[in-house]
Amino acid sequence: MSTYQNKFPVIAIDGTASSGKGTLAKKLAVFFGFDHLDSGMLYRIYAHEVLKKKIQEVDKIDINIELFNDKTLYESKNLRSELVSKTASKIAKNEFVRKQLINLQRHFADKPPSRKGSVIDGRDITSVIVPNAEVKFYIDASLEKRAKRRQIQLNLPEKEYEKVFYEMKTRDYNDKNRENCPLIKTKDSLYIDTSNISERMVLDIAIKEVKKKIDFI
Ligand code: CDP
User: Fold this and answer.
1) CA–centroid distance, residue 201 to ligand 1 (Å)
2) Dihedral Cα 161, 182, 131, 113, nearest 10 deg
3) Looking at ligand 1, which residue's alpha carbon is closest to its atom 20?
4) Helix 82-91 to helix 161-177 angle, to the nearest 10 degrees?
5) pTM of the prediction?
6) Strands of the chain, DSSP E
7) Which residue, 18, 92, 97, 123, has most beta carbons within 10 Å?
8) What are the residues facing 191 on neighbouring strands?
9) Could you identify the atom of ligand 1 that is nearest to the CA of residue 150?
10) Distances in Å between the alpha carbon of 3 and those of 81, 107, 212?
11) What is the pLDDT at residue 178?
């Protein structure tokens, strides 16, 4: 049990692509009545803009903050495509972009709309964005399982599996090895391997951890 360090408790979740971190984040937010921020979406929105406007130098984009409130954009299927994923991962290396997004994410943690708490998932949430989060998770699964999940999620035929597998492998490598805010497992994060357990089991493990770390309401 701990007293809150942040004004509102923060659950920070990092992990590899298609590991189930987004699903877990969403479910935890519903369970505890917290707000959820999918930080990957922010990088995907950047990628979408870059692709749409055929911009070569990422430092030259001035992303309109209004864009992040555009619900129709969030729901757009395009944002999940492999092209957008690949571009997002390239853009994510850019210091200028990361600086622009850092305040937005910290503001969300500081003032979640519900004023109850937040769940934020991504690659650098436990290490850089909210290093003093009350609860931290690192979610992972075998590359084979994750590629299969992504192929199904994108409704792609079986023959596309290999391509998804290699693209995901490259993206993981880039995310873990970049200079700027790489994906790491912080010492204080609880590691959950979702390869062979159900979404419900992952949620149950996580709920237990949250209840242990946050003195609840
Ligand atoms: O859903 P999936 O795990 O495949 O990807 P995502 O979480 O939507 O993130 C897309 C890409 O954005 C990642 O491959 C990262 O390169 C980048 N990203 C990041 O650098 N930092 C974050 N906090 C979130 C995403």
Assistant:
1) 24
2) -50
3) 92
4) 10
5) 0.92
6) 10-15, 35-38, 118-122, 135-140, 190-193
7) 92
8) 138
9) 4
10) 41, 21, 12
11) 94
